[in-house]
Amino acid sequence: MSSQIFEELFDSKARVKILKFFFRNETGFFDLSTITKRVQENGLLVKKEILRLLKIGFIQKRNKSIK
Predict the structure, then answer these.
(1) Half-sphere CA count of 42, side-chain side, radius 13 A
(2) How far apart are CA 56 and CA 54, in angstroms?
């Protein structure tokens, strides 16, 4: 499948990049700044998309007290 199909399907280039990032790094924990750097998108846009993914349960927020 081409990236263009995903962009049409999901309507946001940034969301597609973020989803690809999580599929490729499914066992890791990442902060917002790391994700922003890795997907090379605007920080506010990444935050918006991350909040959407949290809301639908696609990703989970890690408890900071866990080490």
Answers:
(1) 6
(2) 6
Q: CB–CB of 50/35 below 8 Å?
A: yes
Listed by start position, the domains of the chain span: 3-55
Closest of 29, 27, 30, 5 to residue 16, by C-alpha: 5
The neighbour count for residue 12, using CB atoms within 10 Å, is 16
The answer to pTM > 0.85 is no
CA distance 6 to 12: 9
51: DSSP letter:
H
Give tens-digit pLDDT for 3-24: 666 666 677 888 889 999 999 9
Cα–Cα distance measured from residue 24 to residue 28, given in angstroms and rounded to the nearest whole number = 10
